[in-house]
Amino acid sequence: MPLSLGLRDEENERINNILNKLMELAYVPEGWLKDEAQPLLTQLGLSYESIDAMTGDELNAHVTKLHFDFANMERLADMLAANPAFKDKAIALYNFIQVESKMFSFDIFNKINALSK
Known about the structure:
Helix content: over 70%
Low-confidence stretches: none
Distance between the termini: 40 Å
Mean pLDDT: 87
Order of helices and strands: HHHHHHH
Radius of gyration: 14 Å
Number of domains: 1
Structural class: mainly alpha
Number of helices: 7
Number of strands: 0
Shape: globular
């Protein structure tokens, strides 16, 4: 069922807040902090293990089901890109954004190229 505009804004703000906290954990000098990230991932219906087990298409379907907007999808992909184990998931999500948003982004294109090397 589609969300109304007000509920969609609230949901995007909630997702944005969770992603902000995850981004803080992803970019600390020690790298990915799995134990600290797990409770935040759970709020997004994810876990370290579920992300690892998902295909790129399954991750794309999951974030679509949770009503992520394209900006939050990109932030999640940025966070995944910080962990070498999730590089392929990040690339899949960036590609999904490029296709589904129907707007070409040089920034995302450059992120894909950097991860593909």
